[in-house]
Amino acid sequence: MNTIFRGKHWSIQRFISGFANNAFLITCKQTNKSVIIDAPAEPTSLISAAKNTEVTAILITHGHRDHVDGLMDVTGHYDVPIGIGIADRGSLPESAQASINLVTDHDLEIGNIVIQAVATPGHTQGSTCFIVQPINNDNEHAHIFSGDTLFPGGPGKSTSHTRLIQMIDSIKTHIFTLEESTMVLPGHGEFITVGNSKKEYEQFSSRPLDSTVYGNVTWLQ
Ligand SMILES: [Zn+2]
């Protein structure tokens, strides 16, 4: 019931818990190997769905607590490598530190799927997006897991104007350069295509940007 995308090579399930956080389970259909993206509090349904697969890694979009509160619960069931952007490593629970072995700009192969980690600093300095594509490049729409970097309607929250500019730069460089059909799956809420997100951003970029603007910014206001 949680399956949101079923492709030729993968299925993607979404589980909502914690502070209305999205956690995802991506499973390769050919090999049944899977990856978990984010670990919000009370990840019970994520953990039980993952039991039907062979979990190979846990990837964290960034170190804010609501995305890692359930990490020890998840690692209690799946003792697998954890990937998080280097600058956010300090946000993991202490007992999870030792198992970190992934860095950003890193390709991870999960059966017939490639998951590419790209550094997208701004919301946090270690914010990372994960791009999921088939290994043999055969005509399947890619998906990007954007954490709190990009949502339908705007970027994630920023703590200063400089961070907002940095986040917009990350979005333009690593998300808006993907195919328009690519689905953006954020860390909270619903989804949007890259094409529609770019259209929203065009309205924002056509207006002058005051240098005092940061925080909860929306493209269309
Ligand atoms: Zn966040």
Could you walk me through the main structural features you see in this protein, from its secondary elements to its overall organization?
It contains five helices and 15 strands. With 221 residues, the chain is of the alpha/beta class. Strands 1-2-3-4-5-6-7 form a seven-stranded mixed beta sheet, covered by helices on one side. The protein has a six-stranded mixed beta sheet with strand order 8-9-10-11-14-15. It is globular, with a radius of gyration of 17 Å. The N and C termini lie far apart (35 Å). Zinc ion is lined by residues 62, 64, 123, 148. Residues 62, 64, 123, 148 line the site of zinc ion.
What's the quick description here?
This protein starts with a strand and ends in a 16-residue tail after the last helix.
Give me the secondary-structure topology:
Blueprint: E1 3-6, E2 10-17, E3 21-28, E4 33-37, H1 44-50, E5 54-59, H2 65-68, H3 71-77, E6 82-83, E7 100-102, E8 106-110, E9 113-119, E10 128-134, E11 143-147, E12 150-151, E13 154-155, H4 161-174, E14 183-186, E15 192-193, H5 194-205
Parallel strand pairs: 4-5, 5-6, 6-7, 11-14
Antiparallel strand pairs: 1-2, 2-3, 3-4, 8-9, 9-10, 10-11, 12-13, 14-15
